[in-house]
Amino acid sequence: MEIRDFRTVGAVFALLAAGIAAPLHAQDVAIVEHSLPGEGQRPQAIVVGSDGNLWVTEVLKHQIFRVTPAGEMTAFAVPGEAVGVLQGITSGPDGHLWFTSREENAIRRVSTKGEFNGSFAIPSLATVPTKLNKGSWPRGITVGPDGHIWFTEMAANKIGRVTPTGSFTEFEIPTANAQAYGIVTGPDQNLWFTESGTGKIGRFDVTTKQITEFPLSHAESRPRDITVGPDGHLWFSMNGSDHIGRISTRGEITEFALPADTKPIGIAAGVDGNIWFTAFKSNKIGRITPAGVVSLFDLKTANAQPFGMTRGPNGVVWFTSQANQVGQVSTAAKRLE
User: What is this structure's pTM?
Assistant: First the structure.
Protein backbone atom coordinates (compact mmCIF):
# COMPACT_ATOMS: atom_id res chain seq x y z
CA MET A 1 0.00 0.00 0.00
CA GLU A 2 1.31 3.42 -0.94
CA ILE A 3 0.28 6.51 1.04
CA ARG A 4 0.39 10.10 -0.08
CA ASP A 5 -0.74 12.32 2.79
CA PHE A 6 -1.22 16.09 2.71
CA ARG A 7 -2.38 17.55 6.05
CA THR A 8 -5.40 19.81 6.28
CA VAL A 9 -5.75 22.67 8.69
CA GLY A 10 -8.28 22.43 11.50
CA ALA A 11 -10.39 25.22 10.07
CA VAL A 12 -11.09 23.27 6.89
CA PHE A 13 -12.27 20.24 8.85
CA ALA A 14 -14.52 22.44 10.97
CA LEU A 15 -16.14 23.88 7.85
CA LEU A 16 -16.68 20.43 6.36
CA ALA A 17 -18.15 19.14 9.60
CA ALA A 18 -20.56 22.06 9.58
CA GLY A 19 -21.59 21.24 6.02
CA ILE A 20 -19.97 24.38 4.59
CA ALA A 21 -17.90 23.94 1.43
CA ALA A 22 -14.35 25.19 1.91
CA PRO A 23 -11.82 25.91 -0.82
CA LEU A 24 -9.39 23.00 -1.03
CA HIS A 25 -5.79 22.88 -2.19
CA ALA A 26 -3.23 20.15 -2.81
CA GLN A 27 -2.26 20.04 0.85
CA ASP A 28 -5.87 19.27 1.77
CA VAL A 29 -5.99 16.02 -0.23
CA ALA A 30 -4.79 12.57 0.81
CA ILE A 31 -4.57 9.71 -1.71
CA VAL A 32 -4.04 6.07 -0.71
CA GLU A 33 -3.44 3.30 -3.25
CA HIS A 34 -4.16 -0.34 -2.32
CA SER A 35 -2.86 -3.25 -4.40
CA LEU A 36 -5.30 -6.09 -5.06
CA PRO A 37 -4.23 -9.57 -3.93
CA GLY A 38 -2.69 -11.41 -6.88
CA GLU A 39 -1.30 -10.00 -10.11
CA GLY A 40 -2.47 -8.99 -13.57
CA GLN A 41 -5.95 -7.82 -12.61
CA ARG A 42 -7.80 -4.86 -14.08
CA PRO A 43 -10.54 -3.53 -11.81
CA GLN A 44 -13.06 -1.26 -13.51
CA ALA A 45 -16.38 -0.26 -11.90
CA ILE A 46 -16.79 0.38 -8.18
CA VAL A 47 -19.85 0.97 -5.99
CA VAL A 48 -20.86 0.97 -2.32
CA GLY A 49 -22.89 -2.08 -1.32
CA SER A 50 -25.72 -2.34 1.18
CA ASP A 51 -23.17 -3.79 3.63
CA GLY A 52 -21.10 -0.58 3.62
CA ASN A 53 -18.24 -2.16 1.70
CA LEU A 54 -16.95 -1.31 -1.77
CA TRP A 55 -17.66 -3.76 -4.59
CA VAL A 56 -15.51 -3.89 -7.70
CA THR A 57 -15.70 -5.62 -11.09
CA GLU A 58 -12.49 -7.09 -12.55
CA VAL A 59 -12.26 -7.71 -16.29
CA LEU A 60 -9.37 -10.16 -16.87
CA LYS A 61 -9.78 -12.86 -14.24
CA HIS A 62 -13.57 -12.69 -14.01
CA GLN A 63 -13.82 -11.73 -10.36
CA ILE A 64 -15.86 -9.50 -8.11
CA PHE A 65 -13.90 -7.92 -5.25
CA ARG A 66 -15.23 -6.81 -1.89
CA VAL A 67 -13.16 -4.05 -0.28
CA THR A 68 -13.76 -2.84 3.25
CA PRO A 69 -13.39 0.87 4.08
CA ALA A 70 -10.11 -0.12 5.75
CA GLY A 71 -8.83 -1.62 2.49
CA GLU A 72 -9.23 -5.33 3.32
CA MET A 73 -10.06 -7.31 0.17
CA THR A 74 -11.84 -10.52 -0.72
CA ALA A 75 -12.06 -11.91 -4.27
CA PHE A 76 -15.04 -13.91 -5.51
CA ALA A 77 -14.59 -15.84 -8.76
CA VAL A 78 -17.68 -15.50 -10.95
CA PRO A 79 -18.88 -19.01 -11.84
CA GLY A 80 -19.69 -20.05 -15.40
CA GLU A 81 -17.82 -21.25 -18.50
CA ALA A 82 -18.79 -18.25 -20.66
CA VAL A 83 -17.86 -15.49 -18.19
CA GLY A 84 -15.81 -12.78 -19.85
CA VAL A 85 -15.56 -9.03 -19.35
CA LEU A 86 -17.38 -7.73 -16.27
CA GLN A 87 -17.87 -3.97 -16.25
CA GLY A 88 -20.74 -2.06 -14.60
CA ILE A 89 -21.96 -2.72 -11.05
CA THR A 90 -24.65 -1.26 -8.80
CA SER A 91 -26.24 -1.95 -5.41
CA GLY A 92 -29.78 -3.18 -6.03
CA PRO A 93 -32.99 -2.51 -4.11
CA ASP A 94 -32.87 -6.10 -2.86
CA GLY A 95 -29.52 -5.56 -1.10
CA HIS A 96 -27.59 -7.55 -3.71
CA LEU A 97 -24.97 -6.32 -6.15
CA TRP A 98 -26.01 -6.38 -9.81
CA PHE A 99 -23.38 -6.34 -12.55
CA THR A 100 -23.05 -6.58 -16.32
CA SER A 101 -21.45 -9.58 -18.04
CA ARG A 102 -20.55 -8.92 -21.68
CA GLU A 103 -19.75 -12.34 -23.17
CA GLU A 104 -22.70 -13.94 -21.38
CA ASN A 105 -24.94 -11.10 -22.60
CA ALA A 106 -26.42 -11.08 -19.14
CA ILE A 107 -27.12 -9.16 -15.98
CA ARG A 108 -25.88 -11.06 -12.95
CA ARG A 109 -26.42 -10.84 -9.21
CA VAL A 110 -24.27 -11.54 -6.15
CA SER A 111 -25.08 -11.25 -2.45
CA THR A 112 -22.95 -9.31 0.00
CA LYS A 113 -21.71 -12.70 1.23
CA GLY A 114 -20.31 -13.45 -2.21
CA GLU A 115 -23.06 -15.87 -3.28
CA PHE A 116 -23.85 -15.71 -7.01
CA ASN A 117 -27.59 -16.24 -7.09
CA GLY A 118 -28.94 -14.93 -10.38
CA SER A 119 -28.00 -14.71 -14.05
CA PHE A 120 -30.51 -13.10 -16.42
CA ALA A 121 -30.02 -13.33 -20.19
CA ILE A 122 -30.63 -10.09 -22.10
CA PRO A 123 -33.07 -10.57 -25.03
CA SER A 124 -31.26 -8.39 -27.58
CA LEU A 125 -28.06 -9.05 -29.50
CA ALA A 126 -25.65 -6.67 -31.20
CA THR A 127 -27.09 -4.78 -34.16
CA VAL A 128 -23.77 -5.40 -35.95
CA PRO A 129 -22.12 -8.51 -34.47
CA THR A 130 -18.31 -8.64 -34.41
CA LYS A 131 -15.71 -11.27 -33.59
CA LEU A 132 -15.21 -9.55 -30.26
CA ASN A 133 -18.85 -9.33 -29.33
CA LYS A 134 -22.14 -10.75 -30.59
CA GLY A 135 -24.29 -9.73 -27.64
CA SER A 136 -25.87 -6.42 -26.64
CA TRP A 137 -22.73 -5.42 -24.66
CA PRO A 138 -24.32 -4.37 -21.36
CA ARG A 139 -22.16 -1.62 -19.86
CA GLY A 140 -23.37 0.90 -17.25
CA ILE A 141 -25.96 -0.12 -14.65
CA THR A 142 -27.97 1.69 -11.98
CA VAL A 143 -31.14 1.56 -9.91
CA GLY A 144 -33.96 3.47 -11.54
CA PRO A 145 -36.58 5.69 -9.89
CA ASP A 146 -39.04 2.81 -10.27
CA GLY A 147 -36.92 0.50 -8.10
CA HIS A 148 -35.81 -1.70 -11.00
CA ILE A 149 -32.35 -2.23 -12.45
CA TRP A 150 -31.53 -0.20 -15.57
CA PHE A 151 -28.54 -0.66 -17.87
CA THR A 152 -27.08 0.49 -21.17
CA GLU A 153 -26.61 -1.77 -24.19
CA MET A 154 -23.66 -0.43 -26.17
CA ALA A 155 -23.95 -2.83 -29.11
CA ALA A 156 -27.76 -3.15 -29.28
CA ASN A 157 -28.42 0.62 -29.25
CA LYS A 158 -30.83 0.37 -26.34
CA ILE A 159 -31.25 0.93 -22.65
CA GLY A 160 -32.79 -1.93 -20.73
CA ARG A 161 -34.65 -2.64 -17.52
CA VAL A 162 -34.66 -5.85 -15.53
CA THR A 163 -36.86 -6.50 -12.51
CA PRO A 164 -35.56 -8.33 -9.42
CA THR A 165 -37.31 -11.44 -10.78
CA GLY A 166 -35.51 -11.26 -14.15
CA SER A 167 -38.16 -9.76 -16.44
CA PHE A 168 -36.73 -7.52 -19.20
CA THR A 169 -38.00 -4.48 -21.06
CA GLU A 170 -35.82 -2.66 -23.62
CA PHE A 171 -36.06 0.76 -25.26
CA GLU A 172 -34.36 1.70 -28.51
CA ILE A 173 -32.28 4.88 -28.66
CA PRO A 174 -33.35 7.16 -31.56
CA THR A 175 -29.82 7.83 -32.85
CA ALA A 176 -28.13 4.86 -34.54
CA ASN A 177 -24.84 3.57 -33.07
CA ALA A 178 -25.26 5.70 -29.95
CA GLN A 179 -23.10 3.29 -27.91
CA ALA A 180 -24.80 4.10 -24.62
CA TYR A 181 -22.24 3.85 -21.83
CA GLY A 182 -22.95 5.36 -18.37
CA ILE A 183 -26.37 5.69 -16.76
CA VAL A 184 -27.73 7.27 -13.56
CA THR A 185 -31.03 8.36 -12.01
CA GLY A 186 -31.24 12.15 -12.02
CA PRO A 187 -32.72 14.46 -9.38
CA ASP A 188 -35.72 14.89 -11.70
CA GLN A 189 -36.46 11.13 -11.39
CA ASN A 190 -35.53 10.53 -15.02
CA LEU A 191 -32.72 8.30 -16.23
CA TRP A 192 -29.74 10.07 -17.78
CA PHE A 193 -27.21 8.27 -19.95
CA THR A 194 -24.20 9.01 -22.13
CA GLU A 195 -23.99 8.22 -25.83
CA SER A 196 -20.29 7.59 -26.35
CA GLY A 197 -20.63 6.84 -30.06
CA THR A 198 -22.43 10.02 -31.09
CA GLY A 199 -21.46 12.66 -28.53
CA LYS A 200 -24.87 13.10 -26.90
CA ILE A 201 -26.51 12.93 -23.50
CA GLY A 202 -29.79 11.04 -23.33
CA ARG A 203 -32.71 11.50 -20.95
CA PHE A 204 -35.28 8.73 -20.50
CA ASP A 205 -38.63 9.63 -18.96
CA VAL A 206 -39.65 6.56 -16.97
CA THR A 207 -43.31 7.64 -17.01
CA THR A 208 -43.74 8.45 -20.71
CA LYS A 209 -40.99 6.08 -21.97
CA GLN A 210 -39.68 8.89 -24.16
CA ILE A 211 -36.01 9.50 -24.90
CA THR A 212 -34.69 13.02 -25.46
CA GLU A 213 -31.15 13.54 -26.73
CA PHE A 214 -28.92 16.56 -26.16
CA PRO A 215 -25.91 16.94 -28.50
CA LEU A 216 -22.52 17.99 -27.13
CA SER A 217 -20.23 20.40 -28.94
CA HIS A 218 -18.33 17.58 -30.67
CA ALA A 219 -19.67 14.25 -31.92
CA GLU A 220 -16.29 12.67 -31.07
CA SER A 221 -16.31 13.79 -27.42
CA ARG A 222 -17.08 10.23 -26.23
CA PRO A 223 -18.97 10.92 -22.99
CA ARG A 224 -18.44 8.06 -20.56
CA ASP A 225 -19.50 7.96 -16.90
CA ILE A 226 -22.18 10.24 -15.45
CA THR A 227 -23.15 11.26 -11.91
CA VAL A 228 -25.44 13.64 -10.01
CA GLY A 229 -23.57 16.67 -8.73
CA PRO A 230 -24.08 18.52 -5.44
CA ASP A 231 -25.61 21.37 -7.46
CA GLY A 232 -28.46 19.22 -8.77
CA HIS A 233 -27.00 18.99 -12.29
CA LEU A 234 -25.66 15.92 -14.09
CA TRP A 235 -21.88 15.81 -14.55
CA PHE A 236 -20.10 13.54 -17.00
CA SER A 237 -16.64 12.76 -18.35
CA MET A 238 -15.79 13.45 -22.01
CA ASN A 239 -12.99 11.02 -22.78
CA GLY A 240 -12.58 11.90 -26.44
CA SER A 241 -12.32 15.68 -26.12
CA ASP A 242 -10.67 16.10 -22.68
CA HIS A 243 -13.58 17.92 -21.04
CA ILE A 244 -15.87 17.53 -18.06
CA GLY A 245 -19.47 18.25 -18.97
CA ARG A 246 -22.44 19.49 -16.98
CA ILE A 247 -26.08 19.31 -18.03
CA SER A 248 -29.08 20.69 -16.18
CA THR A 249 -32.31 18.72 -15.98
CA ARG A 250 -33.63 21.17 -18.59
CA GLY A 251 -30.88 20.16 -21.00
CA GLU A 252 -28.55 23.17 -20.67
CA ILE A 253 -24.97 22.04 -21.29
CA THR A 254 -21.65 23.52 -20.16
CA GLU A 255 -18.29 21.98 -21.03
CA PHE A 256 -15.10 22.59 -19.04
CA ALA A 257 -11.72 22.06 -20.72
CA LEU A 258 -9.05 19.79 -19.21
CA PRO A 259 -5.37 19.55 -20.14
CA ALA A 260 -4.66 17.60 -23.32
CA ASP A 261 -4.52 13.81 -22.95
CA THR A 262 -6.32 13.76 -19.61
CA LYS A 263 -8.85 11.22 -20.97
CA PRO A 264 -11.33 11.28 -18.03
CA ILE A 265 -13.56 8.26 -17.36
CA GLY A 266 -14.88 7.76 -13.81
CA ILE A 267 -16.71 10.57 -12.04
CA ALA A 268 -18.33 11.09 -8.64
CA ALA A 269 -19.61 13.86 -6.37
CA GLY A 270 -17.56 14.48 -3.23
CA VAL A 271 -18.79 15.58 0.18
CA ASP A 272 -16.66 18.70 -0.26
CA GLY A 273 -19.17 20.08 -2.78
CA ASN A 274 -16.90 19.36 -5.77
CA ILE A 275 -16.85 16.77 -8.54
CA TRP A 276 -14.02 14.24 -8.71
CA PHE A 277 -12.88 12.26 -11.74
CA THR A 278 -10.23 9.82 -12.92
CA ALA A 279 -7.69 11.07 -15.47
CA PHE A 280 -6.98 7.79 -17.25
CA LYS A 281 -4.21 8.94 -19.60
CA SER A 282 -2.39 11.45 -17.42
CA ASN A 283 -2.31 9.19 -14.33
CA LYS A 284 -4.02 11.62 -12.00
CA ILE A 285 -7.14 12.15 -9.95
CA GLY A 286 -9.01 15.31 -10.88
CA ARG A 287 -11.27 17.70 -9.02
CA ILE A 288 -13.55 20.31 -10.57
CA THR A 289 -15.55 22.87 -8.63
CA PRO A 290 -19.14 23.74 -9.62
CA ALA A 291 -17.66 26.92 -11.13
CA GLY A 292 -15.35 24.89 -13.36
CA VAL A 293 -11.99 25.30 -11.58
CA VAL A 294 -9.88 22.18 -12.20
CA SER A 295 -7.14 20.69 -10.00
CA LEU A 296 -5.17 17.52 -10.74
CA PHE A 297 -3.38 15.28 -8.24
CA ASP A 298 -0.63 12.81 -9.19
CA LEU A 299 -0.84 9.11 -8.41
CA LYS A 300 2.31 7.52 -7.04
CA THR A 301 1.97 4.34 -9.11
CA ALA A 302 3.31 4.84 -12.63
CA ASN A 303 0.86 4.22 -15.48
CA ALA A 304 -1.91 3.32 -13.02
CA GLN A 305 -4.66 4.18 -15.54
CA PRO A 306 -7.33 5.19 -13.00
CA PHE A 307 -10.74 4.11 -14.27
CA GLY A 308 -13.95 3.89 -12.19
CA MET A 309 -14.98 6.11 -9.28
CA THR A 310 -17.64 6.33 -6.57
CA ARG A 311 -18.26 8.12 -3.28
CA GLY A 312 -17.76 5.69 -0.45
CA PRO A 313 -18.48 5.60 3.28
CA ASN A 314 -17.33 8.49 5.48
CA GLY A 315 -17.16 10.88 2.54
CA VAL A 316 -14.13 9.19 0.98
CA VAL A 317 -13.99 8.99 -2.83
CA TRP A 318 -12.84 5.60 -4.11
CA PHE A 319 -11.43 4.74 -7.52
CA THR A 320 -10.09 1.77 -9.44
CA SER A 321 -6.81 1.62 -11.35
CA GLN A 322 -6.01 -0.75 -14.20
CA ALA A 323 -2.63 -1.35 -12.52
CA ASN A 324 -4.18 -3.91 -10.15
CA GLN A 325 -5.28 -1.35 -7.55
CA VAL A 326 -8.10 0.45 -5.86
CA GLY A 327 -7.53 3.82 -4.24
CA GLN A 328 -9.17 6.37 -2.00
CA VAL A 329 -9.16 10.15 -1.89
CA SER A 330 -9.94 12.03 1.29
CA THR A 331 -10.44 15.73 1.87
CA ALA A 332 -11.10 15.43 5.59
CA ALA A 333 -8.54 16.55 8.18
CA LYS A 334 -7.34 13.13 9.19
CA ARG A 335 -4.69 10.77 8.01
CA LEU A 336 -5.72 7.77 5.90
CA GLU A 337 -4.17 4.59 7.29
Answer: 0.91
